[in-house]
Design goal:
Elements lengths: L2 H7 L5 E2 L7 H11 L11 E5 L3 H10 L5 H4 L2 E8 L16 H15 L3 H25 L3 E5 L4 H8 L5 E10 L1 E3 L10 H4 L6
Antiparallel strand pairs: 1-6, 2-3, 3-5, 4-5
Helix pairs in contact: 2-6, 3-7
Bound molecules: flavin mononucleotide.
The site of flavin mononucleotide (FMN) has 12 residues, from strand 4.
Amino acid sequence: MDFFTTLQLRRAVKHYDNKATMPAQDFEKLMDSVLLSPTSYNIQNWRFVRISDKHKRLRLKQAAWGQQQVEDASEVLILCADSQAWSDRPERYWANTESSVQEMILPMIESFYTGKKQTQRDETMRSCGMAAQTLMLSAKALGYDSCPMIEFDNEQVANIINLPEHHVICMMIVIGKALKPANPRAGQLPVNEVLFENSF
Ligand SMILES: Cc1cc2nc3c(=O)[nH]c(=O)nc-3n(C[C@H](O)[C@H](O)[C@H](O)COP(=O)(O)O)c2cc1C
């Protein structure tokens, strides 16, 4: 499928075939693709929790106020991020570069994030947003539909997935085979309402 067709066809789908499963090679392809998502200073701070356990799925559905797609979709991923990834052995993120590059970049990373709680938090959301779209477009290209989700009780989900300290939950994404297409687009803003030239 052509890229722009994939982009047009990706919609938030709510109804899934609960008998459909995703073959392992498709799941691998999805993960290989999502790991190509860009992150600031290449810190790769996203962490993905795949919910394969049926009992956990039901608990998640409950935490998501009964949204049926959580139970029926082939895959459910919780997109999380480590807000401290920038300080966790950052040399790994630049391992393939020359030492002169590492000597320049590593102190930059440290000074960019040290003591800046809001920036650390913002980075988790930026990275997961990028990863989410990569994931959903890759799923569409592979013949699946998806739905990004944030309508759930964050604390309950954190408890279900045993969210570690310094990690945050960004969103949930369900992926599967659609039973019903998405409703027509609800209302798109015209470009002149959202695009500004040089300043607001
Ligand atoms: C961050 C985020 C959270 C969302 N949370 C939910 C959700 O909890 N449940 C749901 O049914 N749809 C959810 N949606 C889907 C949006 O309603 C949908 O993306 C939007 O209406 C645009 O439709 P489209 O994705 O089909 O273009 C969410 C979308 C985003 C981006």
